[in-house]
Specification:
By secondary structure, the chain is mainly beta. It has one domain (2-59). 13% of the residues lie in helices and 40% in strands. It has one helix and three strands; from the N terminus they run ββαβ. The chain has a three-stranded antiparallel sheet, with helices on one face. Strand 1 and strand 2 form a beta hairpin. It starts with a strand and ends with a strand. Keywords: ATP-binding, Nucleotide-binding. Residues 17-60 form the ABC transporter domain. This is ABC transporter ATP-binding protein. InterPro entries: ABC_transporter-like_ATP-bd, P-loop_NTPase.
Length: 63
């Protein structure tokens, strides 16, 4: 399970502000949004390749 709470990502401008969601194990999810809206940046943050500027991400209830 992945739990993201109040994620904020900032570069030259705010990319993502106050995003929260829970992804359950064994499910398939999709991410759809316009170009330049921060989809890849969010996935990089979930993968640990980019540090979020706010909020928390935990995996299976581990910080």
């Amino acid at each position: 399970m992945i739990i993201a709470k109040h994620i904020q990502l900032v570069a030259e401008h705010i990319l993502i502000s106050d995003a929260s969601f829970t992804l359950s194990t064994g499910k398939i999810y999709g991410l759809s949004a316009p170009n330049g809206s921060g989809k890849s940046t969010l996935l990089r943050s979930l993968a640990g390749l980019r540090k979020s500027d706010g909020g928390t991400i935990s995996f299976s209830d581990l910080p």
